[in-house]
Specification:
By secondary structure, the protein is mostly helical. Helices cover about 60% and strands about 5% of the residues. It is built from 13 helices and four strands. The chain has helices at about 20-35, 60-80, 85-110, 125-140, 150-165, 180-185, 210-230, 230-250, 265-290, 295-300, 305-320, 330-340, 345-370; strands at about 1-5, 325, 325-330, 370-375.
Length: about 375
């Protein structure tokens, strides 16, 4: 973990990258906190829920957006190595992968450190980010930049082939998908996520392969932005490529369904295309038109994205572990503060989530004002 202090830069965010990128990242983290912490899971608006299996809701776009953004930022971070493979570059990559993975494992354990570790879930959101980013970075350093798109296609079609030819009679089902079989063999059933009713991890090992492709799409977007600069050509090409990817994802989705839990190749294209379109829009508003007065709230999250996500996870688990009478602090806040304000409990549940975003933002704002960046 590294802590740095930066000075303001004209036209740039505190991270030194395009402000539109930090705004996009901040929006993603804020929305991620909202969908992860409703007041009660019994009352949640449909767009704030994941699709039950096949399909894609706005919530299903949060995670791939974060990976896409990490790929865009990767272009800037690996530029110092001239995009060439070397010992120092590999060491930096592996060190960051290990750090983020271990922090993710810590979140899985917290706050129950005395527990049965034979049933500890090994994978998770941060673990997926670590592996997908790390493998994506290695691909970028080992493959010429002009051929990264070929590597992306190989990953997507290779994953489809594995799922189709090695899956069960219904290769894209919860029980029959090959990704689940691989995770059971390598990690063991007791170390997988159980929220689907059977041992299955939506952030598993095999499904990290297409997640790497999501990162590479972001990298190619970063390359495009750097090549064309702050111009309308950048906006146009991002939008055009985004539209093509969305169309390709929808078309492939007729045969390889769009599905977040198994991170299908069609899902990569569809979500990546939407990421391109959002980035094009923000690039136009923030970097070309210069309309930056509204961005401060999101920059607070965007400049310390992983740290604020970890902080949100720790805070949520802390609320769930503190008891006030017979209920947890989490439930007490919803029941005594949010629920009485709205007859429609979905609104009360959303208010609770917004409160959590505000609390985390307040901590992040202290760092943002001091221009402190905590890098994982």
């Amino acid at each position: 973990m590294a802590v740095t202090k930066t000075s303001a830069k004209s036209g740039k965010s505190a991270s030194g990258r395009l402000m539109s990128l930090d705004v996009f990242r901040g929006m993603t983290v804020a929305f991620m906190i909202i969908v992860n912490t409703p007041g009660t899971w019994s009352h949640v608006f449909a767009p704030l829920r994941h699709a039950s299996w096949h399909g894609c809701t706005p919530t299903d776009l949060v995670f791939p957006s974060f990976l896409f953004i990490s790929g865009v930022a990767m272009w800037y971070s690996l530029r110092k190595y001239n995009f060439e493979f070397s010992g120092p570059a590999l060491f930096r990559i592996l060190r960051r992968v290990a750090l983020i993975f271990l922090v993710g494992l810590f979140l899985n354990i917290f706050p129950r450190f005395v527990r049965d570790y034979d049933t500890l879930r090994i994978m998770g959101v941060l673990q997926r980010i670590a592996l997908a980013w790390g493998l994506g970075a290695i691909v970028v350093l080992m493959v010429r930049r002009n051929y990264v798109w070929i590597a992306t296609i190989v990953l997507l079609f290779g994953y489809w082939a594995l799922m189709y030819f090695f899956g069960g009679s219904d290769p894209y089902s919860l029980e029959g998908n090959f990704a689940r079989q691989v995770d059971i063999k390598i990690l063991g059933e007791k170390h997988l996520y159980g929220g689907f009713g059977v041992p299955f991890d939506p952030e598993g090992l095999l499904s990290t392969i297409p997640a790497v492709a999501t990162v590479l799409l972001g990298f190619m977007a970063g390359n495009l932005i750097s090549s064309l600069g702050t111009s309308w050509k950048t906006v146009g090409w991002l939008a055009i490529i985004g539209a093509v990817l969305i169309g390709a994802g929808l078309l492939w989705g007729q045969y390889f369904p769009i599905n977040k839990p198994i991170w299908t190749s069609s899902y990569v294209l569809y979500a990546g295309g939407i990421g391109m379109m959002i980035l094009a829009l923000l690039f136009m508003i923030v970097d070309i038109w210069g309309l930056k007065g509204w961005t401060g709230f999101f920059n607070t999250f965007g400049t310390n994205a992983l740290f604020t996500y970890v902080l949100a996870g720790i805070w949520t688990k802390t609320m769930l572990s503190i008891k006030i009478g017979e209920v947890t602090l989490y439930n007490w806040i919803f029941t005594h503060i949010c629920s009485p304000l709205f007859e429609e409990q979905k609104l009360a549940s959303l208010l609770f989530a917004i409160i959590q975003v505000t609390i985390i933002w307040a901590f992040g704002y202290i760092l943002y004002r001091r221009k402190i960046i905590i890098r994982l």
